[in-house]
């Protein structure tokens, strides 16, 4: 193989490696964003559940159903 051909092959290999690294980084960022969104939704769900339970208890107290 000539030097020019070897150089082109080497550069193509480097470009492929850099592209794979960038894709991997993007996938990691997307995964982290998805995990963060999931945790936020779970926290919001817990808060909503607690508020609903509090409202239920308040209604039971007002109506005398908690006896």
Automatic annotation (TrEMBL):
UniProt superkingdom: Eukaryota
Biased composition (Low complexity): 42-55
Segments for region (Disordered): 1-67
Compositional bias annotation for Polar residues: 1-23
Composition-biased stretches (Basic and acidic residues): 58-67
InterPro entries membership: LEA1/2/D7/KIN2
Gene3D superfamilies from the UniProt entry: 6.10.140.1430
UniProt name for this protein: Stress-induced protein KIN2
Protein source organism: Raphanus sativus (Radish)
Source species taxonomy: Eukaryota, Viridiplantae, Streptophyta, Embryophyta, Tracheophyta
């Amino acid at each position: 193989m000539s030097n020019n051909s070897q150089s082109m092959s080497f550069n193509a290999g480097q470009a492929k490696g850099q592209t794979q690294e960038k894709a991997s980084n993007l996938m990691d960022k997307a995964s982290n964003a998805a995990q963060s969104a999931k945790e936020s939704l779970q926290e919001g769900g817990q808060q909503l559940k607690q508020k609903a339970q509090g409202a239920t208890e308040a209604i039971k107290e007002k109506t005398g159903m908690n006896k």
